[in-house]
User: Fold this.
Amino acid sequence: MKYRNNLSAVIRIVAGAYLAFLGVRLIKDGVLTGSMQGGARILGIVFGAVFIGFGGFIAVHALMFGFKSSQEPEEGAEEEIVEAEAVRESEPDEAAPAGPTSLFARANMLANAAEEEETEEENEEENEPLS
Assistant:
C-alpha cells in the first residue's frame, strides 16, 4: 500500500510541476515575445498565473503528503503485528515441522539413508558365519 501512496505522490508532483511550467510558458509568450495582443495577452498572463499557483499548490501538497505518509506507519499495521504475535504465542512450538524443510536438505537426507543401507548390508555379509 505504501508503494501506491509514493507512486501517487510522484505523479502529483510531476503534474503540478508541469502545470507550473505551462503557466510560465504562457506568461513568457504573452509578455516577452509579444505573440499575443490585446485581450489575449491579458488572459494569457492571468491564466499563466493561475496555472503557476495551482501547479505549485499541487506539487507542494504532494511533497508534504508524500513525506508525511512515508514517516507514519500504515493504518492497521500495528493491529496486524499484535494479532500475529498473539497467534504465535497461542500456538505450541510442536506445530513447527520437524526435520529438513528444503528440497535440497531432503535430497541429502535420502542419499545418506541409501548409503547407510548399503553399508549395513555389507556389514551383515561380512559378519555371516561361514558354513
